Amino acid sequence: MNEGGLTRRQGLAAMAALAGNVWLPPARAGQLEEPLADSVRTALSAAIANGSPPVPEFHDTERRLAYLRWLGANSERLRRRKPDFQTRIEFLQTVWYETRRAGLDTTMVLGLIQVESGFRKFAISSVGARGYMQIMPFWSRLIGDGDVGGLFHMQTNLRFGCVILRHYLDRERGNAFMALGRYNGSRGKDVYPNAVQAAARQWAHPDA
What sequence ranges are listed for the domain Transglycosylase SLT (predicted)? Predict the structure, then answer.
C-alpha cells in the first residue's frame, strides 16, 4: 500500500486517469453481450430511439445560472483536449443533457469518458468499442438501428453510453462500483472503477 492507502495497481490506474490516458484492465475491456429479456430490450430501445435535441431546459433562473457556471468551468478544463470553443460547448451541453436524461452523475460520466477514450470522438479499442464512451458494436444491433457507424456520432454515442450505464446501475441496484465494472467487462475488479473515480475528481464542480 502507498501513503494514500492505494495498492500499486490502483495507484497506476489513478495516475493514468489523471494523465488523460485510456486505462483498461488487462483481462478484458468493453461491455459483454448478455441475453436481454424482451421487456428490457424494448425499454432500452425506446430510450435510445427518443431523438430529442440535447438542449437543457431549466425551470428557474438559478438552475440555469448553475448550469452556466458548470459549463464555463469545464469548458476551460476541456480546452486542452478540445481547442475549438463551439465543439467543446456542444460536447459538454450534450453530456449534461444525456446524463440528466438517464439519471446519472454527470461528473462520473465525464470521468468515464476520460478513461475510456480520452475525449476522442473516433477512438476505437482493441476489441472494437467505439467513440467517446466506447460502445461495443453489438449494442447497435440489440437496441439500435444496426448502424455501427452511427456510434461515432456524438449524441448517439453519449445516448448509448448513458442508457447502458443506467441499465447496469439498475442491474446492480445502484452500486456504482459494480456497475462501472460491468460497463468495462471487469465486474468485481477494482482497477477500472478506481480509475473512473480518480478521473471524475478532475471534473467535480459545486454546480454539477
Answer: 99-189
Closest to 180 in 3D by CA, of 101, 116, 121, 95: 116
Residue 72 lies in a domain: no
Q: How many residues does the chain have?
A: 208
pTM: 0.84
Structural contact between residues 28 and 134, judged by C-beta atoms closer than 8 angstroms: no
CATH number of the domain bearing residue 133: 1.10.530
CA distance 166 to 177: 13
What is the pLDDT at residue 50?
74
Distance CA 89, CA 154 (A): 12
| Residue 27 grid cell | 483481462
Provide the residue range defining the domain that includes 165: 8-25+37-60+97-203
Q: Dihedral angle at the C-alpha atoms of 151, 155, 160, 166, nearest 10 degrees?
A: 160
